[in-house]
Amino acid sequence: MEENRLTALAGLFLRKARKEKNITGKQLAKLMGISQQQISxxxxxxxxxxxxxxxxxxxxxxxxxxxxxxxIFHEYHGSISNKPETLSSPPPLSQYIKHFIKDKSC
Length: 106
Fold this sequence. Notes:
Layout: H1 5-20, H2 25-32, H3 36-43, H4 51-60, H5 65-81, H6 93-97
Helix pairs in contact: 1-5, 2-3
């Protein structure tokens, strides 16, 4: 599903950052205080990230938030630009970050 594309790209970025830091999912889970299974769900794009959790991941993995955003947006636009309906201008940032904000009204 297209709506989960950003979640999947975020997970791929985090997995790559973890591997570049040469730590296992189990080690990252211990550092973050969550289960290894949950780390796997985030990295595989199964569970969307909240902004707070994304911030914790980036700090733990020594990653810059701006670099993260640039890389996943570049990948996102690269994947949709191959479609017949190419966007003439990027959508607003709010469209992107809604995928990382947990709906608190539920």
